[in-house]
Write a structure and sequence with these properties.
Number of helices of chain B: 6
Structural class of chain B: alpha+beta
Radius of gyration of chain A: 28 Å
CATH architecture of the largest domain in chain B: Roll
Shape of chain B: globular
Shape of chain A: globular
Structural class of chain A: alpha+beta
Order of helices and strands of chain B: HEEHEEEHHHH
Oligomer: heterodimer
Number of strands of chain B: 5
Strand content of chain A: 15-25%
Number of domains of chain B: 2
Largest interface: A-B, 63 and 66 residues
Number of strands of chain A: 29
């Protein structure tokens, strides 16, 4: 196999369209007769709904439909519980529209459809809802209070789930350990904030009895299957398309957001297309969020800085519902050991309901929290023993010859947490070089003389990626030689149309631009799950490879018959299929595709040329020989991994803290990343860059502040600050490549990596910069105001 | 309730406007409360101008308004009466070849999901017109009114540098 495009910095195939403003996001689609929807949302975090009067709204000219819970009939069912787990004993999911009670500010209460969005929003103002406010669970602390308010009256203690896992014998180790430290570590809420909010467009075609939905989602196939069940339609009569999606970062891997049911319902009822587009304010109070956890961690280590045991007990805030099960805290528990040889580990978590926006995975999904805790531990060990922080990490690293390494815990997919490959020291060495780590103390000392506070921080992590269950792909060569490929995963900016094309192009001897990839259209590929958990390149990419190999082999077989040669002597290159060492005995790939499809009526330029060529005549027997299986050059393949593959990395930064304001400036940021074999280095580096920026936001600016009434008081981009080009520093990125032995491409996931170690290294760097003040960071995010407070307290 | 209905009827009162967008003159009757962004997207079907926050922070809806980078979500369509607007659709050349700024974004992988990209390109266009030779700090400062959630800005900054360099070359000029 001549690999030409795998690993090459191929320019993205999707860009010319997007750069011209010719993208096709949900709100760009304009259908004849289309109506527009708006959602009335709860203004209370917890209240009984006493009465709803929608009469005035219904009477407003231009309003076509007003739906409240009582109008939903059999659709008034809680959303399905995704990823159930035995430990999730009290799951609760939300109704499409709240009926008796609301449990967070933003919960959908009524749905209005009108001639345009302006009128629909006017109508929202005319709906009169009488609420009877109830005590609010506005924090993890309140949720955990004995006899405190309850989010769900029938869930005692607000506890949705509890799960304990133990590796080794931590109790004995703690009993005899030379050093034991206990700390409380907090991570607060943030949100993914894709630049495109959510959106749904639904069209009901009464002639075809067909429902078509365009949804800004990461999982159209599960939504298709769910909508078919809800509306009692055959699956092939529901088509869900994720067109261009303006970022997802996890918050769009859900089913169902209420609007994903209400919009198609309205379209079916009204017989006209209905579009609902979320605005940013709505996104702040209705799109899922993440990150809030409170850890009580105890750790034991010896005089050499070897970590002996960890006991971590944490509370996880799931918001008002558990739509996505408990995979986030499971990932946290499994990610915490990181790249270190931790043989004695007790993890226990409790998932608590709060009157806040529901929680589902956001890029990193439980990992930044775990890495924050573990890296705090490593720094503290170094501090206690007066050792270098990186030296402590090196002493604890799992070594390259120790893979596969079984952490001993069950991962989010139910499989083992088993690291397939890695070389953590190699990454750390590269990072040290990028940061000029050994010379930093000089720089730091000089700055201190000038009254400036510089610090250096690092964060190491291992990231579970590429989990199952499976994905599939279809590859087809058409008669003009163009290649079409489709898969069930979606794209929200990861450039799958390019990377998958690279994978296919290598097998079929064509250029990536000759391969047209379709993602996220249930009519183009019927099987699969979605894009999440850094799995698309690994799982769908592997399926794409396997399908392309099948097509290649079939092309060789068909060409061998035509040339009366052995398939072993047939090669594919430059769009041609030819006999090795006899390049004049060649057909175009399109001609082979025509020959593979024994039609009575061939057409087109390729077919005309074929007729003039001297090729083997028709063989006796069926026109489509049994061994060929199917006509044409087309094949599907599926890939299901034995278990997740584990990417890794280490990031580091040099920062400057201004103690008079609490402001932090990044002077240098470096990331060394190992996602196995790299399909396209430019795209992978782009993923890392974006993750780091999101991580900087999450570590520094982005804290969703809920008041005691459960109101988010910074629900706008004026107040919830996303990092801009002025805050994100230039980033240095390098790679280590330890191929995964688990899949045919040797790849691991890269999507979430960048974000994961940022809180950890940020805390590490602040500690270092402010060591004269004796600051020890134990919370994230750390807004400059909060850092100023901590400094102020330290100086008292 | 009657009073409220009167309020609505005021808002939906229509006004005649004439706007030049990407060199084409459009005459339309629009409700006075229609946002310029909605006018461009849903009346003129120029959907390359995106709406990311509707409160003037994210910059996705940036267009050139008489040459200046402007948030189209913070303006009403009626305010554009008699004005000239350039949107992303007006950036490519007559033979639809990419504008040097667009080309630089392509070469430097300056976009991922593409949602913020049109707004950023319009901002960069105005920036390079004013400062043809910006430093990296100036580029980052000028870009700070446009939020990108995918790229971490690194490759956007690289693309702006490349575009600036090419546009400064004598054979090319910013339109």
């Amino acid at each position: 196999m001549a690999t030409r495009y795998f690993g090459a910095p191929v320019q993205r195939l999707e860009d010319p369209r997007l750069l011209r403003g010719k993208g096709n996001y949900v709100d760009d689609i304009d259908l004849p007769e289309m109506l527009h929807a708006a959602v009335l949302r709860s203004t209370h975090a917890r209240a009984r709904i006493v009465h709803i009067d929608a009469g005035a709204a219904q009477a407003l000219p231009g309003v076509r439909l007003v739906l409240t819970a009582n109008d939903l009939g059999e659709l008034l069912e809680p959303s399905p519980l995704l990823v159930p787990h035995a430990a999730l004993t009290q799951p609760r999911t939300q109704l499409p529209l709240a009926r008796d009670e609301v449990r967070y500010v933003g919960e959908a209460v009524a749905f209005v459809v009108a001639d345009n969005r302006y009128i629909a929003e006017d109508a929202l103002d005319l709906i009169d809802v009488e609420y009877e406010p109830m005590p609010v669970v506005h924090s993890l602390a309140v949720a955990a209070e004995q006899g405190g308010p309850l989010v769900h009256a029938d869930v005692p203690g607000n506890a949705a789930a509890q799960l304990a896992q133990t590796v080794g014998d931590p109790d004995s180790v703690f009993a005899s350990a030379p050093h034991v430290i206990h700390e409380t570590i907090l991570m607060d809420r943030g949100a993914a904030m894709p630049m495109e909010c959510r959106g749904v467009l639904a069209r009901w075609d009464a002639h075809e009895s067909m429902l078509t939905c365009w949804i800004s989602t990461q999982g159209p196939l599960p939504i298709r299957n769910g909508l078919a069940a809800i509306f009692h339609l055959p699956e092939h009569k529901v088509r869900v398309i994720a067109p261009d999606v303006g970022g997802g970062f996890g918050t769009k891997i859900m089913m169902f957001y209420p609007e994903e049911i209400l919009t198609p319902l309205a379209a079916i009822q009204l017989g006209r297309p209905v579009k609902w587009i979320e605005d940013r304010r709505e996104h702040f109070i209705s799109a899922n969020q993440e990150r809030s956890q409170l850890h009580e961690v105890e750790y034991a280590f010896d005089d050499a800085g070897i970590l002996l045991a960890v006991r971590d007990t944490f509370l996880h805030d799931t918001g008002a519902y558990t739509p996505y099960g408990i995979i986030i805290p499971i990932i946290t528990a499994c990610t915490l050991p990181g790249p270190y040889r931790l043989r004695h580990y007790a993890s226990e978590f409790t998932v608590l309901y709060t009157n806040k926006v529901p929680v589902s995975p956001y890029r990193g999904a439980g990992r930044p929290h775990a890495v924050f805790v573990m890296e705090r531990i490593m720094d503290r060990i170094a501090q206690e023993l007066k050792l270098d922080r990186l030296e402590v990490r090196s002493r604890n690293f799992i070594q390259p010859d120790e893979f596969p390494w079984d952490v001993g815990l069950n991962y989010q997919d139910g499989g083992p947490t088993k690291y397939d490959s890695g070389n953590y020291q190699a990454g750390l060495d590269k990072l040290k070089a990028l940061l000029d780590y050994d010379n930093f103390p000089v720089l730091q000392a000089e700055a201190r003389k000038q009254g400036r506070y510089l610090g250096i921080g690092v964060g190491c992590y291992v990231e579970g990626t590429g989990i199952g269950p499976y994905e599939g792909a279809m590859v087809r060569v058409e008669s003009d030689g163009r290649v079409f490929a489709a898969t069930g995963v979606t794209t929200q900016g990861q450039a799958h149309a390019t990377t998958f094309a690279q994978i296919v192009a290598d097998q079929l001897g064509v250029r990536p631009e000759d391969v047209l990839v379709t993602t996220g259209d249930t009519q183009a590929f019927n099987w699969g799950v979605g894009t999440y958990a850094s799995r698309a390149a690994t799982i769908a990419g592997s399926a794409m490879h396997l399908a392309a190999v099948k097509v290649r082999e079939k092309a060789r077989q068909v060409a061998a018959d035509l040339f009366e040669a052995s398939p072993d002597d047939i090669e594919l290159a430059d769009g041609k299929v030819f006999v090795r060492d006899a390049p004049h005995r060649a057909l175009t790939l399109g001609q082979v595709a025509i020959s593979a499809n024994p039609l009575r009526y061939a057409y087109g330029e390729n077919a005309r040329k074929l007729m003039t060529m001297k090729l083997a005549g028709t063989r006796p027997g069926p026109a489509l020989p049994e061994e060929r299986g199917s006509p044409g050059l087309e094949a599907s393949a599926f890939y299901s991994p034995p278990h997740g593959s584990f990417a890794s990395g280490v990031h580091g930064a040099i920062i400057e803290v201004d103690p008079t304001t609490g402001n932090v400036t990044f002077m240098k940021y470096a990331a060394v990343h190992d996602c196995g074999r790299v399909i396209n280095p430019v795209i992978v580096e782009g993923q890392v860059h974006g993750g780091v920026a999101q991580g900087i936001g999450g570590a520094f600016f982005e804290r969703l502040v809920y008041d005691e009434e459960g109101q988010i008081i910074n629900a706008s981009f004026m107040d919830y600050l996303l990092p801009t080009a002025a805050e994100v520093p230039p980033l240095l990125v390098d790679h280590v490549e330890t191929p995964s032995p688990l899949n045919p491409l040797g790849v691991k996931g890269a999507g979430e990596a960048g974000v994961i170690p940022v809180p950890a290294l940020f805390a590490s760097a602040i500690d270092d910069a402010l060591s004269p003040f004796g600051i020890r960071i134990r919370e994230m995010p750390l807004h400059p105001c909060r850092l100023y407070e901590l400094l102020h307290e330290a100086q008292q | 309730m009657q009073e409220r209905d009167d309020d609505f009827s005021l808002c939906v009162e229509e006004c005649e406007i004439a706007v030049t967008v990407n060199g084409n003159r459009y005459e339309r009757s629009v409700p006075v409360r229609l946002l310029l962004s909605d006018f461009l997207r849903h009346e003129l079907h120029l959907t390359g101008t995106h709406v990311g926050c509707e409160h003037g922070v994210c910059g996705c809806c940036t267009v050139l308004f008489n040459g200046e980078a402007t948030r189209s979500c913070l303006m009403f369509a009626v305010q554009a009466d008699g004005m000239a607007i350039t949107t992303i659709e007006g950036m490519a050349g007559v033979n639809s070849e990419l504008h040097p700024i667009q080309q630089a974004f392509r070469e430097k992988h300056g976009l991922q999901c593409g949602f913020c990209t049109p707004g950023i390109i319009m901002t960069v266009h105005a920036m390079l017109h004013e400062h043809p030779d910006p430093t990296e700090d100036e580029i980052r400062h000028e870009l700070s009114g446009n939020i990108c959630r995918c790229t971490g800005y690194q490759n956007i900054v690289e693309a702006v540098k490349l575009a600036a360099e090419r546009l400064r070359a004598p054979q090319m000029e910013v339109e």
